Amino acid sequence: MMSNHSSATEFCLLGFPGSQERHQILFAVFFFFYLATLMGNTVIIMIVCVDKRLWSPMYFFLGHLSALKSTTTSIIVPVMLWGLLLPGMQTISLTACVTQLFLYLAVGTTEFALMGVMAVDRYVAVCSPLRYNVIMNSRTCISVVTVSWVFGFLSEIWPVYATFQFTFCKSNLLDHFFCDRGQLLKLSCDDTLFTEFVLFLMAIFIIIGSLAPAIVSYTYVISTILKIPTASGRRKAFSTCASHFTFVVIGYGSCLFLFVKPKQTQAAEYNKIVSLLICVLTPFLNPFVFTLRNDKVKEALGDGVRRCCQLLKD
C-alpha cells in the first residue's frame, strides 16, 4: 500500500497468473501471433502499394487499416511478451504508461473512424457504381483518411489527461498486461464516478458514431444486392463487401464489450480476455479476412510470390 498523500510514479503490471512454465508457453503462442500479424499486415501494405490492380479506394483504406492493426499490436504485445519473460513483476514508468495508453486509444479511435469510412465506400461502390470514381476520387480518399488519423489522436488527448489527473495512492499494482484505463481508475483515491461517466459517453460517441454509418450503409448494400436478378451477380456484389462486413462484426463486437459500459473498473480477468481479442486476435485475423475472401488480393499475392520465386531461381 502507498501513502494517502503520494501518487504512484511507476506501476507494476501483474500480467498473467501461473508458473514460469505457463508463462513460457504463453510467450511462444503470443510471439507467434505477433510475428504472423506483422508479416501478414506488412504483406498487405506492400502489395497495395506495388500492384496497380489494387490502386483503388477500397485497397487504399485497407492499407491504412493494416498499418493501424500492426501499430495496435506493437503498442501492447512487446510489453506483454517482456513481462512473460521476467521472473518477477514487470514495472512501467508513469511516462511510459501515459504514452502507451494514449497511443492505444488514439490508434483504436482512428481505426473506428476508418472502418466507418470503409463502410460508406462499399455503399457507394454497390449502390452508385457509375458515380463511384467521381465520388471516391483520390482527393476524397486522402482527405477522409487524414481526418480519421487527426480525429483519432486529437479526441484522446483529454480522456488520457483526465485519467492521469487522479492520485493513484491505493496501490501501484495494475492487474493487467498493459496500462489499462479501467485498472488505473481502480487505484485512484479520488472520486472517479463523473469522469468515468464522461468517458463512457465519449466511448458511445466514438464507437456507436462510427458504427451508425456502417449499419446504414450495409442496410442499403444488402437491399441493393438482393435486387440483383442473377445469383452470380449477387455473389460478385457481396464478395466486395463480405471481408469488411466480417471485420466490422469482429472489431466492433469485441470493443463494445470492453469500452461501452458505464463502469470502467470491471473484473480484471474479463478485461484481459477482451483486450487479447482486440490486441492479438483481431490484428492477426485481418490479413486472412481480407485475402481469403478477396480474389484481387489473392491474385496480387500469388503474382508477388511467383515473382519472388523467379528472382530466387535467377
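The above is record 1. Record 2 follows with the same two-line structure.
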Amino acid sequence: MDYTDSNTKSHGSKESPGANYFIYQGLVTMAGCVVAFLTSAAMGYTSPALSSMRADPHFSITREQESWVGAVMPAGALVGSLAAGPLMNHLGRRLTQLYIVCPFILAWALIATGKGIGVVVAGRVLCGACVGVAMSVRIVYMAEIIQFDLRRIFNPIITCVTQLGMLVSFVAGQWLSWRGLAWLGVVYVIPLLPLLLILPETPYHLTRTGRRDESLAVLSMIRRTTEEAELEQEQIDKSCHVRNEGNNTWQKSIGTLAAPSNMWPVGVGLALMVAQQTTGITAVYFFASTILSPGNDGGGNQKTGYINVVMGVVNFLGTILSIYGIRYYRRRSLLQMSSSMIVASLLVLALFFWVQESGEIYPSDVGNSWSYVPTIALLTYILGFNMGWGGIPFVFIIEGMPSWIRGQATSVLIATHWGMAFLVSKTFMWSLATLGSSTTFLAFAIVTAINNHLILRAMPETYRKTTAHMNQVYLDAVAKKEQ
C-alpha cells in the first residue's frame, strides 16, 4: 500500500497532522487487541472444553489425549513463532498478520466440527501455529508503530485484553459446549481482517526494504508533527545502515543474535521466557480442573466450571493491577514482588498436597473445610503471576530489545515461550501421577526462586527508557568491554 501521494501535503508543511496520528495508533492498538484476545481465548479454551468433552456422550477422550489437547497448542505456537521471523522480514509485519486470518478461521472450524480426537488435535496445532505467528508479529508491529509517549496509554489496554479472552472463554464455557466454544473462536478472528486492510506497514520495514519515501509518508500520519516524523526517519535510516539488515538470511539473522551488542538483551529475554513458564502457569491454566478435582471424570463439571470462572476473574483483576504497576513501578521491583507471591502460593499448595498425600488430613469428615486451601492458594498464585511475570517478559521485548534485531529476536523469544509452555504442559500430568502434586508444586517454587535471583542480577532496567536509549546502553556496554 503506497501512502506517499496521500501525504505529500503533510511533508510540505511543518504543521501537525492533527488527531490522525492518534487515530492510526489507536487502530493499530485495536488490531493488537484482537490478536491478544485470540491468543488468550485459545489458551482459555482448554480447561472448559476438556470438562465438556468428558461429559459429551458422543465424544470419547482419555486422560492421555486430554494432555495432548492442551499441549499441542503451544507446540504449534512454537513452530509459528519460528516461522514469524522470516515471514515478517519477507512479507512485512502487516501482510504477515493479514495472511494468517484464513488459517485461523480454519483452525477453529476444524476443532468445532471434529468427529474424533485426531481432527481436534490437528485444529489445535493449526490454531497454535497461527497464535505463534500473530503474537510475534503483533509485538513487533506495535513496537514499531506506537509512539513512545503513547505506549503508557495503549500498552496497558493490550495487557488487559490479553487476559479478557481467557475470562470470556471460561464464562462462555458455562453455557456452551466445547464445539460451541470453537465456533465462538471463529467469530473472534473476523474483526482482524478489516483492521489490517486499512492499516499501514511499519516505517522500519519499509525503510529496510528500500521504500524510504513510503516510510516517511507513514511516519507523517502516525506522528504529531512533520519534524518528529523526519527525526524518527533519520534514526531508522541510521539503524538500518548500521546493521545492514536488508539482505539477511534466516541463518545469518540467527547468528546476529549472538553478536556482542545483542547477547545481553537476547540472553535476558530468553531467561525471562524460560523463567515465566517454569512457574508452571500454562499447566495451571490448562489443567486447573484436574488440579482441584483430580478424580473428576465429568460429574463435577459445574463445580470446576465455577472454579474456571473465578480463576478467570482473578486473572483479569490481576492484569488490571499490573497495568498500574507497569505504569508507575520499575520492572525489576515488579518481578521481585511477583516472585514472592508465586513462591509463597506454590509452597502452600505443596504443603497441602503433601499433608493430603500422607493421609494426615482430608478425610471425609473435614474434607470440605480444607478444600478451599488449594483454591485460595491457586488464586493467589494467579494474582501474583499477573503482577509481574505475566507481562514483564513481553514488556522487555518492547522496551529493552535493540531495534536492529527486534524482528528476529522476538521470533526466537516467543518460540522459546511456547516451547517451554509445551514442555511444562505436556509433562505436568505425568509429574502429578509420578512425582505427586506436592513434589510438583515444590519444584515449581524452587525453580521460580532461583530464576528470580539470577535474572534480577542481569536484567537492565527499562522503565521509562526509549528504544534509542536502550540501543545506546548495549553499544556502550560492548565498547566498555573492548577497552
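The chain has a mean pLDDT of 82.
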